[in-house]
């Protein structure tokens, strides 16, 4: 977006409240959408050519244990406590 807007300003475009600005902004947003769609298609094509099939491959299958749940609960409790302390200090 920044490069496209820099290109517009180098051609003399200035933001105003008129129909020309609205038209140009609409065209800019449309071009941004088209460019992002094109880029996503190129990225997907590159991923497929490297063997991507939509599934995440891992060496070891993850299994949730009681210790994992306890660690997550402790981390959440610490985060909440820090948030409460920071809010009471201010």
Automatic annotation (TrEMBL):
CDD domains: EcfT. GO terms for cellular component: plasma membrane. It is a multi-pass membrane protein. The keyword ATP-binding does not apply. Keywords: Cell membrane, Membrane, Transmembrane, Transmembrane helix. InterPro entries: ABC/ECF_trnsptr_transmembrane (IPR003339), ECF_transporter_component (IPR051611). The chain crosses the membrane at residues 20-37, 69-89. It is found in: Membrane. Its main location: membrane. This is Cobalt ECF transporter T component CbiQ. It comes from marine sediment metagenome.
């Amino acid at each position: 977006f920044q490069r496209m807007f820099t290109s517009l300003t180098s051609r003399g475009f200035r933001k105003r409240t008129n129909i020309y600005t609205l038209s140009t902004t609409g065209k800019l947003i449309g071009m941004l959408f088209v460019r992002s769609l094109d880029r996503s298609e190129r990225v997907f094509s590159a991923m497929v050519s490297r063997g991507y099939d939509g599934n995440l491959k891992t060496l070891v299958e993850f299994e949730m244990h009681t210790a994992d749940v306890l660690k997550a609960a402790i981390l959440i409790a610490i985060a909440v406590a820090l948030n409460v302390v920071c809010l009471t200090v201010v």
